[in-house]
Amino acid sequence: MSAFSDPIALLDSAFRSATSAAFPEVGDTDPLITASKQAALGDFQANVAMSLSKRVGKPPREVAGAIVAKATSNPELAQIAEPFTDKSIAGPGFINIRLKGDALAALLTSIDTKSLGVPVPQVKETIAVDLCGVNLAKQMHVGHLRATIIGDALARVNERLGHNVVRQNHLGDWGLPIAMVTAKIAADAKAGKINLDTLKLDDLDRAYKAAQRECTADEDGLASVEKFNLGPKARAELEEQVNGAREKLAAAKLTLVKLQSHDPEIYAVWERIAKITVDECVAVCARLHAIVRAEDTAGESSYSNELGEVVDDLVKRGIAVESDGALVVHLDGPDDLNDHGQKINEPCIIRKSDGGFLYATTDLAGIRRRVRQFGASLLVYAVDARQSLHFQQVFAAARKAGYAKMQSGQNAILRHAGFGMVLGDDGRPFKTRSGENVKLTDLIDEAHERAGVEVNRRSAALPEAERNKIAEVVGVAAIKYADLCNDRMKDYVFSFDRMVAFEGNTGPYLLYAFARIQSILRKAQAEKSIDTGPNAPFRKAPLAIVQPQEKTLALAILRYPGALRSMADSCEPHRLCGFLYDLAGAFSSFYDACPVLNADNEATVLSRLRLCDLTGRVLHDGLTTLGLPTVERM
RNA sequence: GUGCCCGUAGCUCAGUUGGAUAGAGCAUCGGAUUUCUAAUCCGACGGUCGGAGGUUCGAAUCCUCCCGGGCACGCCA
Fold it and tell me: A431 and A404: one domain?
């Protein structure tokens, strides 16, 4: 962030020099500046005295006193902070700092720009974000919700920080399961049972499940029947099932070979299935306000020509070796560590003993493409936490193979942004009553519908079309915020009942704060004849930070660039959520205590209007960065 | 068996590099609207931070062990 608008950076600098002036023998020391938890104590605090106490052999309060004495004579500090008093040093040796109102106003003024204080990056990086991860011929369901929402948010925050982001929807569109459904669809089409031109994803979804079932032989059941001699009828039924399944499986394997050799007939059917799937995926993502376009699709099939080459390369260089007929990359070298710096015991299998490739092979090719072809320096994978070991293996294997190496010679950073499961009220994975995966379209429909009830009740005066639009946005925001607002790694309980309360720490609360701000701006124009255009005078009006609620709001706004940085660095969207909730809360308190348009003098009206507008822009920018849509009124 | 994740208020969750009296929301109770949207605000109630040791001036946070829950562990993706 621009050091100019960041109070922590300013205080850090001032106290850093004060500390080294007071204790030259310890050299440059982090003054440990943090925001105070309790506003009564101060706005910020320096915790350096306690940690320094032992090193300089003096009691912490004495250390604090010496630092404060030096800081007092710093003119830059005197400009932004209230003078120290005998109460500034408190407890074991905390140095409490309070900012001057006019300093806050100056800081706010400097952040009140188009960029909202977010600096242009020194180096514009390319960042590849793996997200969404749908499968061919399957409806998007709750299992794709987090990969889509979290992945999109991580992509957005890096874009917001000025980087070049490549989204990669690693479509599961290759391999035996896909061949099974392709074989079935091709056979049904040939038999005239279905029409490829009018086929819907729902039809494919059913065919996929049916093909899975038909191809899975109950070998265990047959073995039991034989073992326990359960009678000729049971035996005959099972034999028929098993023989049928074996036949279907054989057909699927044949189809897989045809698919891999681009047999025109089979390939055309597959392409049709792929198009239906991707079109629907893109449509559902659009409803979710997640940016996943057709051109972001990078299916497993797109690597099919590279896998043999990758494996040959690894074998030739001795990185992959044979083991029980399969090819594996052993990860027992001193540099083959996981993210915890620990050894990885399990080798990474890149080719099965029957010659087939695995998803590790595809992911290796994916890393190679993302680093070499896209020039990515950071690869983020928004994928289920259960695949943690898999990614640790693939990452280590890629580094060992040199596939993560950039032109600079350094390795690109490989990060698995894993996430927990979506649970139902019963603490079990979220399913429909009949035990099916909940389709995302149904999920969005229900949120839309439930939000509609609230919107109709609360905003009956608005035109119906607008109410419907608001309900859709509120419903989607509720779903997305609920997913993003807590720690990624944890499972979370999905509850429409809690979401539709729309109270407290929810997406709609944030939307509401934004809508109130827009309402004030509309009223300023309509009822007070205040110009609110792009070049309106109020945008340059002097800011006066006087009331405690104004101060709390100002301090919150100033944290925005840091909150974005924190989310990007940690790949944790809930950090930005927490910031936005604080900001919306600070605004709501301000709104309650400080009249804007009805303030007692013109200068205050304009100052507060500017503060509202700035808050609104930060809220909107933050919500957009999370991928939450907004409404002008609700 | 090995590894990873998790355990904080009745419920759902935050808690930054180790900092002061562990914070929100929901629920419960009490208040606030002749003025900018009450999807709001203000207050009260509510805690052995899973347990036990250890490091530290200071531990929800770091280390060790234990308990409980979830997940993953070579030819599925």
Answer: no
Q: Which two tokens stand for residue A478?
A: 């509720």
Is the CB of A346 within 7 Å of strand B? yes
In terms of domains, do A244 and A207 share one? yes
A273 within a domain of the structure (yes/no): no
Residue A461, class by beta-carbon neighbours within 10 Å (0-12 exposed, 13-18 middle, 19+ buried)?
Answer: exposed
Mean pLDDT of A328-341: 88
CA-to-C1' distance for A51 and B59, Å?
A: 15
Do A337 and A431 fall into the same domain? no
CATH code of A91's domain? 3.30.1360.70
Q: What is the pLDDT of residues A434-474, one digit of tens each?
A: 888 999 999 999 999 999 999 999 999 999 999 999 999 99
Report the complex ipTM.
0.97
Domain contains A288: no
Task: Please check whether residues A475 and A585 belong to one and the same domain.
Answer: yes
Q: Does A326 share its domain with A428?
A: no
Edge to edge, what strands does the sheet with A126-131 contain?
A164-169, A126-131, A378-381, A413-416
* A232 falls within a domain: yes
Residue A340 CA to nucleotide B3 C1', Å?
11
User: Which residues contact residue A40 at a Cβ distance below 8 angstroms, ignoring those fewer than 6 apart?
Assistant: none
Whether A562 is in a domain gets the answer yes
Q: Which of strand B's nucleotides are less than 7 A from any protein C-beta?
A: 2-6, 12-17, 19-20, 23-27, 35-42, 56-58, 70-77
Residues A78 and A187 in one domain: no
The mean per-residue pLDDT over the stretch A555-568 comes to 96
Residue A482 CA and nucleotide B67 C1' are separated, in Å, by: 31
Beta carbons within 10 angstroms of residue A462's beta carbon = 16
Say which range, A109-123, A238-252, A590-604, has the weakest mean pLDDT. A238-252
Tell which residue, A255, A275, A274, has the closest CA to residue A265: A255
Q: Give pLDDT tens digits for A347-363.
A: 999 999 999 999 999 99
Please give residues of chain A from 599 to 628 whose alpha-adjacent beta carbon (CB) lies under 7 Å from any atom of strand B: none
Residue A193 belongs to what domain range? 176-261
Written as six digits, the tokens of A509 are 């609360």
Of all nucleotides, the one whose C1′ comes closest to residue A327's CA is B75
Which of A 531-570 have CB under 7 A of nucleic chain B?
Answer: 566
pLDDT at A65 exceeding the cut of 80: yes
**Residue A43: what pLDDT?**
94
For CA atoms A543, A548, A554, A558, the dihedral sign is: positive
* pLDDT mean over A399-403: 96
Q: Are residues A498 and A478 in the same domain?
A: yes
Residue A145 pLDDT exceeds 80:
yes
Q: Residues A500, A449: one domain?
A: yes
Which residue's alpha carbon is at the shortest distance from the C1' of B35? Answer: A598
Residue A1's pLDDT band, with cuts at 50, 70 and 90, is: very low
Nearest amino-acid residue to B5, taking CA and C1': A489
Number of structural domains in chain A: 4
Distance, Å, A506 CA → B28 C1': 21
